[in-house]
Design goal:
This protein is an all-beta fold. Helices cover about 5% and strands about 40% of the residues. The chain is built from 1 helix and 22 strands. The strands form 5 sheets. Strands 1, 3, 8, 9, 10, 12, 13, 14 and 16 form a 9-stranded antiparallel β-sheet that branches. The chain has a 7-stranded antiparallel β-sheet with strand order 7-6-5-4-11-2-15, with no helix packed on it.
């Protein structure tokens, strides 16, 4: 394992979360436009997973594998289809937007739920928590004082839109974590929450590329789309002449054919 290849993220648990104070720069009681977005990876799918929450006031999280927005005193908004399902062990970009008329939930840039919402929440803001009741990792959480459009959500998946609308930018890819928006809010890790280096991570260079695994695709032998065609992660231990291939044990079941494509990053030779 190359110990120089890692990424950093926050690790939360049922007993670990981050506190970020009482003022996020925008009201979350449905009297103002707002948007939230975050990169998360869940280890378990328990009830009442909170991405951002404030007791008796506001909650954006995951229930029963679906995104949910719960503003106290107003109807709960939740995804309800297979397209809006959150699995564990995969990274997801999740977002919620509100433009004073409609709430929209997004997963990986795709709108998976639209619902009308009006009125004012009945709660009072207190201390906001990030990642409470969440067994999993988080890389970032951004908050905007605008109901972002679908195009803006897609743009913000891998960058940040104009600072004109950004009110909080919580970055968990550094230790200690930072709010990169001025004025900076203190991020206080509580309980079992911690910042981790995660191994292994993928480094790409030259002409190298990666394909998501465990997704149905084109069978490279027959060019027919089969539901049993899967991409799998693997690790290679190589010397100058020989290479040993290591596959996760769960990938070895019911395999009928093999097709390998990978890149040798060190000397930039491509092999198939």
């Amino acid at each position: 394992m190359d110990l120089n290849n890692y990424y950093i993220s926050a690790q939360f648990s049922e007993n670990g979360y981050a506190e970020v104070g009482t003022d996020l720069g925008v009201l979350l009681d449905a009297t103002s436009e707002f948007s939230l977005e975050s990169w998360i990876r869940l280890s378990e799918l328990e009830p009442d997973i909170n991405i951002l929450s404030c007791e008796n006031y506001f909650r954006f999280g995951v229930d029963n594998e679906q995104l949910v927005l719960d503003i106290k005193g107003l109807p709960v908004i939740s995804g309800s289809t297979s397209n809006s399902r959150i699995d564990k062990q995969d990274w997801y970009h999740v977002a919620v937007t509100y433009n004073l008329q409609h709430v929209r939930l997004y997963i990986n840039g795709e709108c998976v739920m639209t619902s009308s919402l009006s009125g004012k929440g009945s709660g009072s803001p207190g201390i906001y928590r990030i990642g409470s009741q969440m067994n999993g990792k988080m890389r970032s959480l951004q908050i905007y004082r605008k109901g972002l459009s679908a195009n803006e959500i897609n743009d913000s998946m891998f960058g940040t839109i104009s600072d004109e609308y950004l009110v909080a930018d919580f970055d968990f890819t550094c230790n200690p974590p930072l709010d990169r928006k001025t004025p900076q809010r203190e991020i206080k890790l509580s309980g079992e929450a911690e910042i981790l280096k995660v191994y292994p991570s993928l480094r790409l260079s030259g002409n190298a590329f990666a394909t998501p695994y465990n997704k149905a695709g084109v069978n490279p032998g027959g060019e027919i789309i089969l539901t049993r065609t899967r991409y799998m992660p693997f690790y290679v231990l190589a010397t100058s002449k020989d290479a040993s291939l290591f596959l996760p044990t769960h990938c070895l079941k019911s395999i009928r054919a093999w097709h390998f494509t990978w890149s040798m990053i060190q000397n930039r030779k491509r092999c198939s």
